[in-house]
Amino acid sequence: MRILTRALAAMAVCFPLALIAGAAQSQDLVVAQIASHTNIASATNAKGLTAGLNAYFAYANAQGGVNGKQVTLLTRDDDLNAGKMVATTKELIANKDVLALVGFLNTGGLTELAKQNIPGEAGIAMIAPLQGNKNIVGADNFFPFRSGFTEEVTALVAEAKSTQKKRVAIFYWNTAFGPPMSQFAQTAAKNQGLEVVANVAVDVAPDKFEANMKAAVAEIAKSKPDAVFLISAGRFANAFVTLIRDSAAADTQIYAMSVVLAEDVVKAAGAAKARGMVIAQATPFPFSPTLPVVSEYLRVMKQHAPNEAVSFSSFEGFVGGKITVEALKRAGPNPTREKIVKALNNLGELNLGGVYVNYSPKGRTGWGSVDLTIVGANGKLLR
Description:
The protein is α/β, with parallel strands linked by helices. The chain has helices at 2-26, 43-62, 82-94, 107-115, 118-122, 134-137, 149-162, 178-191, 209-222, 234-244, 262-269, 271-274, 292-304, 312-330, 337-345, and strands at residues 29-34, 71-76, 98-102, 126-127, 142-143, 167-173, 195-202, 227-231, 253-256, 278-281, 348-351, 356-360, 363-365, 371-375, 381-382.
């Protein structure tokens, strides 16, 4: 009997503690990300985004969280598959604990989310997706940070003009942002007085990758351009650099969009072939503390993610985390999806530290500027 009494007493003590622990756990402010760490085409950016988000949330939580509550990130992998991103997003939305979406990566998936108006109909915010297509980030409840693809192409065309390039070619993949940005690049180049000597698409069919790439690069090289605008990403961009440097147009200047990662090109093509590439950046340069927000980023990464690399993608995740925490704060002590969307729509101009976003019922704009970087002799990015 004494043994039973002691057991019941112990249960009486433990049970309330378990309830308290469960209650405390449920008080976490949960936000969710979809980005594939396993697909080779997205892994670098995905890991960087997640690292930056977690670093900022760790920093905020160390300061007491948001109104005393901890911010928690759920990350899901969609293997860079559009259908899987849509399905996983719907699963996350069905989880009532998820208050907002942040740091999504997958152009095809985001296109579908915007087309089907999934965040808008669910009344949930999509914060700082890695996306520059304004047809996507202009959809309901999308709150962008990075500059748009059109701003990137405009900056690259202006750079070509200012460096006395006269004959330019355009290489693009026939998917995602490729066709519309090809059209935009043609118009922008002609407006700057540049002659577009070739506009070449490559079919993204995986079973014909090598043949399609060789044919497209041969057509570009045949046009003898002074410069080429590279409007693609991943293995297509990497292969283009490798092949063009081995062609008759080996000396042509390459201008690439921010979706092209310098480290991936260097790994695939080698530093010598990547050298001299100009790459537009849709977020500020994160490697030197020239802006207050970059100084903060470098400090927080060193403190809360010392083993993670400083990169454009981790900086982008960091800023996405910062915007998210600001929205949670402004949503009040008991934030809901509706309150978060309302807070973001009424945010106005937010100073993130020398870098601004502006969200209102009339429009939602991110940074809006573009940095141009160049791949140096050692394969590192320089400003």
